[in-house]
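A quick word before the example. In earlier lectures we treated sequence and structure as two separate objects. From today on, think of them as two lines of the same record. Here is 1,4-alpha-glucan branching enzyme GlgB written that way.
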Amino acid sequence: MTSKKPAAGNTGGQSRAARTDAARTRSAQVPAQSVPAQSVSSGRDDAPAPVVPAPAPVVSAAPAAVDPDDRARLLHGTHHDPHTVLGAHPVPGGVAFRVLRPYARTVTVDCGELRARLHDDGDGFFSGLLPLSSAPDYRLLVTYDGTVLETEDPYRFLPTLGELDLHLIGEGRHEQLWRALGAHVLTHQGVTGTRFAVWAPNARGVRVCGGFNFWDGSGFPMRSLGGTGVWELFVPGVGEGELYKFEITRPDGSRTVRADPMARRTEVPPATSSLVDVSHHEWGDAEWLAHRADTPVHEAPFSVYEVHLPSWRPGLTYRELAEELTSYVREMGFTHVELMPVAEHPFGGSWGYQVTGYYAPTARLGTPDDFKYLVDRLHQAGIGVLMDWVPAHFPRDEWALAAFDGRPLYEPQDPARAAHPDWGTLEFDLGRREVRNFLVANAVYWCEEFHIDGLRVDAVASMLYLDYSRDSGQWTPNEHGGRENLDAVAFLQEMNATVYRRCPGVVTIAEESTAWDGVTRPTHHRGPSGFGGLGFGLKWNMGWMHDSLQYMSHDPVHRKHHHHEMTFSMVYAYSENYVLPISHDEVVHGKGSLVSKMPGDWWQQRANHRAYLGFMWSHPGKQLLFMGQEFAQGAEWSEARGPDWWLLDPGYGAAADHRGVQDLVRDLNAVYRATPALWQRDTDPAGFEWIAGDAADDNVFAFLRRAADGTPLLAVSHLAPVVRSDYRIGVPEDIPAWVEVLNTDAARYGGSGTVHPDPVKPEPHGTHGRPASLRLTLPPLATVWLRPA
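And the structure line, produced from the sequence above:
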């Protein structure tokens, strides 16, 4: 996938700039030559003129010009500390006022009892020396062509970031980095405005531009805060909803305009500006959060519905999804939803996997508060929320992270090492502490600010191996001569340890497709490889997915030759804590939908589909199913179209076929959640016993699952298109009768109706190494579950 790039430097929203000053300042149309008190209005067209005292008379100040070197650096955007030049500074003979306001006609300093018009020094500089003993509180009256703006001077304010913030940033240990960097509305020295802060250590200078200054940042240079690489500026009067970007002067003197890496809200793509955001959401999920950590995830029911929000029902907003998606998932009985990346991304065809706004939910569906409302409603309905998280790579869009401050910053210095070989993107420099901090804090951010219950970490395998998708000679071994990416290992361990420490009940899930040792082992436990565990809570079982789908794709007559593809997963089932994923990746780009992978005619395809889901829900491990597969959609998924909901329309002739599969998934979830044997010991070998794992000629798989108290559930999958009568299945002798609790061949699901309506009693006829056995009629292409009567 290659990200489509909107035009570089697209600021967007300039039409809003004219509205911003009215909300920020008091302005009026007046003659440029005077500053009478009555010329300043409230900024509202319908408001009565305020009663204000007569201003002090205006005097002309003697010039106090800016030093030529400072002047040149400010004009060229390369000054690292504009506050030492601009603003009010005690000097011999009084206080020097210096202001940089390009395009202004006049600038007057208002100290309350004294008003002084500053000297025009040219190029937008204004200065004056006033006979004062100390720098006073003051405001500026800035006259443009026929307009006077009364405003605070940004350069009279102390830094808004404290020593602790800067220390933690410098150490790469600021676990709430989003509270320090980015844009924050706050009251500072008694004045309300917005603090802008950005990490750009290679920049020669940084200026903030936006609607509030007509996208001209030349009058708003930021100051560098020591060796941290952080630049900061408090801009009075700027508030919620303002558009902004950072204008960065690169080391070579050229300039680039960038969106804020820490922006918590963005414009709707393809526009690329950042927005100042203030959250007003009041959470209502306290009960959910209070009990989220009561049971460890691997010992609890965990059935996940994977959703691409923009296409689940195209056109719905976050708030509309909060009603419809919540209702549907609750009705279907899934315990969790997994949202494909919601972080902002420029190209919808990337499905969210090429992120440019790591701290901003995509604006396509609403505001950050709207997304919080969606999570809140899901929690109140008892549904957990997982989201995909993408720390492996980011796109090259020139308004975003790539070469952010003129040099590689978030990516490695070596271009060959930086380039992700599969997607044309850039990898993160995980050996740089500030980059690790950016990502670790981001993981915490989604969990703490949006109450996310779990992070499914994308493309972990591509992070772990230096030679991933690279040929010999295209990669450099680590310090030990190996292929392991030691920086990535350390990052993942730090991320997992931090999230689990700060956010009780949250789970992290690795999409990791290799046999890396200890993905779900605690970070402090070393394995045979010498590495500590990566610290994930769960791992996608890509081997099970590949092997089982391969088996199901074979015609039943050939399946006996591939029996091991269904049983091999149990060889390693307890090496990690697994999720069994049938995800979006398996139903796109020519792979076909799940039902279309199945052989045979339409009836057999649906029967195979149902039997496979029954096998999946009973196999050790948690379940994940992508949208559309729960009703056997025939077409593969398209992000432009979404699921084919019309297949369920009663007016469609084959709707009953699809509704039958949907009803099965609903019942699978219901029985699953009510049956601890199916989830309580997913990671404990004592929770599984093969009954018939070698019945290849019959295409039969039979096993017991056991709850923590030993209560069993018998699962039998028969994957041949024939009925087998009087088929003996060995069972424990201490259970007097078994009752069928689910049969994927039931008529209501679209099956043949070969079911066991009455309890089945064991007979003292040993088979499968058991002293007793059941005589069952095995339905064609079906999975049957039985429990003690």
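Notice the following. The longest helix spans residues 655-673. We will return to this example when we discuss secondary structure assignment.
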